[in-house]
Amino acid sequence: MVSDMYLQIDKFYLEIVTLLTMITALALSLWSARASHVVAAISSSLFILYGLYSGEFRVFYVVSGLVWLFSSTFSALHDRERWYSLTFSGTLLGIMITLLSQNYLEFLTGWELMTLFAYASIGVYRREWRPGYTFLAFGEVSTVLLIAGFILAYQETGTFLFHTLTDTLPLWFTTFGFTVKMGIFPFLVVEWLPIAHGNAKPSLSSVLSASMTLAGVYGIYKMMSLCPQTQALGGVLILIGAFSVLFGALYSYVSDHMKGMLAFSTIENNGAILTALGSLELSADPVLKAFAQFSLMVYVVAHSLAKTGLFLVAGYVHGESMSTLSTQRSFSLEIGTTLLTASMSGLLPTVGGVAVWSLLETLFMESISVGGILGLIPLLAGVMVGMGEGFATGAMARFTSFTSLVRPRGGERGRLVLLIGVLMPVLALLSYLLSPEMAGAASLGMFSNSLIPSGYSGGSFGGISPLYVLIILPILSLITYLASGRRRVRTVDPWDNGSGRRLTYTSFGMANNIRLMLRFVLRTRKGAVETSADVFWRAILQLVRGYVRFSRAFSRAYMNSSISWYMIYMILAFIVVILVVFL
Amino acid sequence: MRIIGDLGPHCLTSEGLAEGPCKYSRPTIGEGGYGSFNFLYGPSAGGLLESVAFDILTYGESIEDVRALSYKTRHIKVGGLPLRDVLFKVERINVPFAASHTIAFLTAVENALGVSPPEEVVESRIAQLELERIRNNLLVIQRLAEAASFLVPTYRLLYYVEEVNRAISRSCGHRYFLGANYLGESRCQELHLPRIDVEELRDLLSNRIFIDRLQGNGVVKEDWAIGPAARAAGFSYDARLEVPELKYRDHGFKIVTESKGDAFSRMLVRLEEIEVSLKILEGVEVKPRRFELPSREGRGIGRVESPSGDLAYMVQVEQGSIKELHLLPPSRINILLFLRSMPENIFTDFPFNWESFGIWISEAEVSIS
Amino acid sequence: MNWFLRGIRRGILTEKEFPQVQWPSELHRSKEGEVKCPTDALKEDRWDPNRCIFCRACEPILSPTGRSVQAQVKRSEPSFRRSFYLYPIDVGTCGGCNLEFRLIASPQYDMTRFGIFLTNTPRHADALVVMGVMTPKMEEVLRRAYDAMPEPKLVILLGVCAVSGGILGMPPDIRGDVVIPGCPPTPESILRALVEAKSGE
């Protein structure tokens, strides 16, 4: 008991110290950018420590802390502008407050703070005001939905503190508020426009992409734990999540803008996380729920860290168009990028592989255990997620090839990227800790608890063993290498059909066959700069333009500066007021 | 009147020589937008039968424009050489078309010397030209089937090509008619007909997937097209109808046309022509024959219908040797047609369209002096 | 299904003995007389197959025997006994050698029963089949193709143009391990030479 109490007090002090350190970072930014970033890094480390002591939200805190730690370290090494460090640490502070909040008001404060500081960082530099403005506008839309949800919750409980609720309406409102911010279909533009066209630096892009959306996931997860289970919401989330996976991955594959590719990849992964959340909400089976929770946590870990690493890779590369990049290739960058993109493609033995596997297993098991028509939803979602993962692998392969593997050798940079990359297989091993159970399959050579099984109340379903793959892969490779005997090596030029030209194939060209095949869906036009467009954003723009035209026409008809009509309006208003007072 | 092509400094038309270079538009390479780049196919690649390079302007998988780069240009000296030596060289400009080249050359020489060859020689020449046509048409269809990895027809057609080569060898000595025609002499002994079942070929080739790859591919509608490409587009162009000296009319020759102008139509035209050629050969008798050639001077033109279109020679003879020689190979014009027809298609259409024209680089890129 | 039944009814078309071809084949003197050979293939009564273009100008003083022209295999490589991949490169042919070379895949000759295959890139090739006279632009291409091939490798000169230049030019400047004369060499002589080069039968 006493030790518990000490733990509580320690936690409390740790929390205060962490917050204060971040506020110091904010203040320091007025004097020195580097100092601010270093202090922000220290604050992130403290936050990780705090997170390790927390209860069920441990994963969210630790992952957020790691993302901030890597981003601020990168900024400490490379960024010198004070204005940037101000907005950067301000954004981090906002997210920190959101994650540490104990009541609705604190949550909203952190949320708004985060949005405003991020807008300041995105929107202010370049001549283009649209990216930052879009970001802010949709951020406010999400805030409005959040406020509506929180007001409903307040009405029920009478207090701002987080208490369990019986009404599901707050959950609906807040969930949609959070999904707008996450760039989920049809609001894909919220994610890709600021990152691709705004002036966000690599470290801020990774925060926008990994950490801010993580705050959204945290919010949904929290509200789900407070409200009763609604299968309808689960189904809806699964479907829109899966749809985002498919379209995010497709746009990522056909995109030729480096940061645009990563932004769409973020949308895809957010969709997958949303699908995991929806699966959690959809199933009532406790075993399945535990596994769905596992898949959610692993996905969160995999995406946040890998995406951070990839945005930092983008920081080492000059140029934005994939077809005209130039970079100095280094061993660290090569290995790091390969491991990171392997994780994002869902390959074992990285943690991304465990994540994708567990998500698909969850969906399969749900379609069996949740019977009836409702069981079709996870099935459909599984199809879309599978297709999306295929495109994602293609996009990631293209990303690695054109940023790291085919350039002239240069210096030794990018050790940070290597560090994050190496984390990918390491975390796959740590996913054993998150798994609800472990088993062994001695007949297959997987001994004592090295298997992560997937199961539901109806029985066991399947299993995966990252440890096994991690051990077998190097062993088999080594055996093949040693068995191939003495090698005679002669270095030659690549075979270029004898022409003597350096034959190249651009990144744009590699994705062009999909652009041509899916011409109708992607609205591909030839020869223009933007060769395929986000159809949802186009649709939204059409709606907006239509609305603007209607409103103009309506206002001209309504406010037509004719005295007689104004008299009629006044009389009508008078009648309506009297009626309302009476009733 | 139709334009055939540039023959030396003149333009050869169906009614004789005309002034200057022929008037038809040459292809120009366009500029590509963002994301376009140049893709090089060749010169030494497994899918090409000969060495030629194609510079393709593409956005990736799409073909915006194609340019052909020459790599195996041979320089052949004929000026001042005696006729017999020039004949040996002419035979080896393009050996699969050796009969067409030789007969066109000899016809030009005979025109220059003002001589008409006797009937047996004319019949023997018709037999050689038709046998060559059968073999080359089978080869074109075989290359199309091979491009589609359509293996049973590929091997059946290859079998037939070899059978035709053997029939030619039994008839005229050499599998490619080399040494079968001399000045004032035709050495083919007798006619052996190859046994070809065209119905079987039609049955083998009617496969939806294969036809799909050929239909709509490389549409050619230019009115200066020649050979099977022109006939596939609906034009009734054939030197066998236009050159009376070849005496095809007496052997029941029927022209074959299609209307769409795509690779599929070109294949159909060639398939039909195999049947027409077999029918012509049934009514032909081949015997060896010699005749005298006077020693005069003069200039003459000889034109035949080679398997891929009109082939013409213009010679100026002086004292038993060549003073001037000009060649109009069909492949030169077919290459222009091919380059015009390629844009708007995609990479996978490329080999089909290329093979469907029956182009031989060796006769297009030879420079004669 | 028709093609399948037809094929079964037709039986095996691959031949063990090939029919005789008169031109090109080994020539021998059958009459007395002087002959002016355009490529100097007749030196002191000896017929040099490496220079003969089979133009039949020497008929009837020399006449064909019908035996296929013998190739010279200067070096053979036993490691290719079971699998022999060829990469053809055309440096300046008339088209005849290209066609005759492809005909060794026809059902009558069937090169695959001897373990001979074609490949699309010199990287996977065991032997480089060079055809045609040397043309200026193809010199570099030939050299690059030769460099791209891994050891052990063979160079096969196909056709009299590649061996001695024929009547149209100079031969390519590369040492050939297998020399196949003929204009163009028949599929039979090509096949015999290849089988000897990979030292099998």
Folded structure, characterized:
- Chain A has about 575 residues and is mainly α.
- In chain A, about 75% of the residues lie in helices and about 5% in strands.
- Chain A has a domain at about 230-440 and about 445-480.
- Chain A has helices at about 1-30, 35-55, 60-80, 80-100, 105-125, 130-155, 170-180, 190-195, 200-225, 230-255, 260-280, 285-315, 330-345, 350-370, 375-405, 415-435, 465-485, 505-515, 520, 535-560, 565-580; strands at about 440, 445-455, 460-465.
- A 3-stranded antiparallel sheet of chain A has the order 1-2-3.
- In chain A, strand 2 and strand 3 form a beta hairpin.
- In chain A, helix 4 packs parallel to helix 9 (about 200-225), helix 9 (about 200-225) packs antiparallel against helix 12 and helix 12 (about 285-315) packs antiparallel against helix 13 (about 330-345).
- The model of chain A has no long low-confidence stretch (mean pLDDT about 85).
- Chain B is α+β, with helices and mostly antiparallel strands.
- Chain B has a single domain, classed as Cytochrome-c3 Hydrogenase, chain B (Orthogonal Bundle), CATH 1.10.645.
- Chain B is built from 12 helices and 14 strands.
- Chain B has helices at about 85-90, 100-115, 120-145, 150-170, 200-205, 210-215, 225-230, 240, 265-280, 330-340, 350-355, 360-365; strands at about 5, 10-15, 15-20, 35-40, 50-60, 65-70, 75, 180, 185, 290, 300-305, 310-320, 320-330, 365-369.
- In chain B, the strands form 5 sheets. Chain B has a 3-stranded antiparallel sheet with strand order 1-2-3, with no helix packed on it. In chain B, strands 4-5-6 form a 3-stranded antiparallel sheet, with helices on one face. Chain B has a 3-stranded antiparallel sheet with strand order 8-9-10, with helices on one face.
- Chain B is globular.
- The mean pLDDT of chain B is about 90.
- Chain C is α/β, with parallel strands linked by helices and about 200 residues long.
- Chain C folds into 2 domains: about 25-70, no CATH class; about 70-195, Rossmann fold (3-Layer(aba) Sandwich).
- Chain C is built from 5 helices and 10 strands.
- In chain C, the strands form 3 sheets. A 6-stranded mixed sheet of chain C has the order 5-10-9-8-6-7, sandwiched between helices. A two-stranded antiparallel ribbon of chain C has the order 1-4.
- The model of chain C has no long low-confidence stretch (mean pLDDT about 90).
